[in-house]
């Protein structure tokens, strides 16, 4: 009989491409991952990996096992979900991963509602960059998490995760009061952008280049509260999603662009009807539906991405 944990490692290798990435996702050493995959090959009786120098790729047998392995893992998740549905009342841990803006705005009301309706749940929130959520879900460090991408830089769906939409937000150009109002007018401005390698930085570069220029980066900050404080201090301009603009500091103008940020609720395939996951989806959707647009004060009429 195949070892499910080893099967999960092989599926993760197909998704992450390298043994080093699989090791990092599971907090193992690369040597330990290699040993487990070698043991899986012995269980199967066929070579699953082709090694070329330091790189590995799946053999035909490996690809077949991954295809069926994803179905097996989803079926196990469905089994856990079905058993959980038989319990009387919701209890036990519910591990939630969310990005900082959502933790500040949507999670408090969600947690209060969950605790009131399901006092047996042990709610645990971890603040994570969305890029770290899939690995945490795969490794069962999270039960549910929030992912996002942007319409101008879409992210490829993970075949081992199911998602449902939560938010579709406007992205704003944040300017110091009195600054130029359109995106193209910021050609010579100083910019506040996210850290290198992040999706937020990639989006800023994409949007600016589409407007005909490369932004001149002065500051780097990943927290949108910090970004808006720097904008208010006249330190530059930036792009911020709607969820971060509920209470902009005095002296910040917000110009809506055509760019959209899309947030989805993610969980492992087969977990959609798990009572705790379904309860979380219900409550965070309720919290997001009551989330209003920021006040009109300090907000200019739409200019679009021109």
UniProtKB/TrEMBL annotation:
Domain spans labelled HTH lysR-type: 2-59
GO cellular component terms attached to this protein's record: protein-DNA complex
CDD domains on file: PBP2_LTTR_like_6 (cd08423)
Annotated Pfam families: HTH_1 (PF00126), LysR_substrate (PF03466)
Record InterPro entries: LysR_HTH_N (IPR000847), LysR_subst-bd (IPR005119), WH-like_DNA-bd_sf (IPR036388), WH_DNA-bd_sf (IPR036390)
Signal peptide location: none
MF annotations from Gene Ontology: DNA binding; DNA-binding transcription factor activity
Highest taxon listed in the record's lineage: Bacteria
Keyword flag ATP-binding: no
UniProt-listed Gene3D superfamilies: Periplasmic binding protein-like II, Winged helix-like DNA-binding domain superfamily/Winged helix DNA-binding domain
Keywords recorded for this protein, A-Z: DNA-binding, Transcription, Transcription regulation
Family: Belongs to the LysR transcriptional regulatory family.
Protein name per UniProt: LysR family transcriptional regulator
Naturally occurring in which organism (per UniProt): Actinoplanes nipponensis
């Amino acid at each position: 009989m195949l070892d499910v944990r080893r099967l999960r490692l092989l599926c993760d290798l197909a998704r992450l491409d390298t043994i080093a990435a699989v090791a990092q996702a599971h907090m193992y050493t690369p040597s330990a991952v290699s040993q487990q995959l070698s043991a899986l090959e012995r269980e199967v009786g066929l070579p699953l990996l082709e090694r070329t120098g330091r790189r590995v790729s799946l053999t035909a047998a490996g690809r077949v096992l991954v295809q069926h392995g994803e179905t097996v893992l989803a079926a196990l998740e469905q089994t856990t979900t079905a058993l959980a549905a038989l319990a009387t009342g919701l209890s036990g841990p519910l591990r939630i991963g969310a990005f900082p803006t959502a933790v500040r705005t949507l999670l408090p009301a969600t947690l209060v509602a969950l605790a009131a309706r399901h006092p047996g749940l042990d709610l645990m929130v971890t603040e994570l960059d969305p890029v770290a959520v899939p690995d945490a879900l795969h490794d069962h460090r999270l039960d549910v998490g929030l992912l996002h991408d942007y319409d101008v830089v879409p992210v490829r769906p993970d075949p081992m995760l199911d998602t449902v939409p939560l938010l579709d937000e406007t992205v704003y150009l944040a300017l110091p009061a009195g600054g130029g109002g359109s995106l193209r007018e910021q050609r010579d401005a100083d910019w506040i952008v996210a850290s290198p390698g992040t999706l937020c930085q990639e989006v800023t570069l994409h949007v600016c280049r589409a407007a005909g220029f490369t932004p001149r980066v002065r500051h780097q900050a990943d927290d949108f509260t910090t970004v808006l404080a720097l904008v208010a201090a006249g330190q530059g301009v930036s792009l911020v999603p709607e969820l971060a603009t509920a209470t902009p500091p005095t002296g910040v103008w917000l110009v809506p662009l055509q760019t959209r940020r899309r947030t989805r609720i993610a969980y492992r395939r087969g977990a959609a009807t798990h009572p705790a996951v379904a309860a979380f989806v219900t409550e965070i959707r309720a919290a997001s539906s009551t989330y209003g647009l920021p006040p009109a004060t300090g907000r200019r009429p739409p200019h679009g991405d021109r």
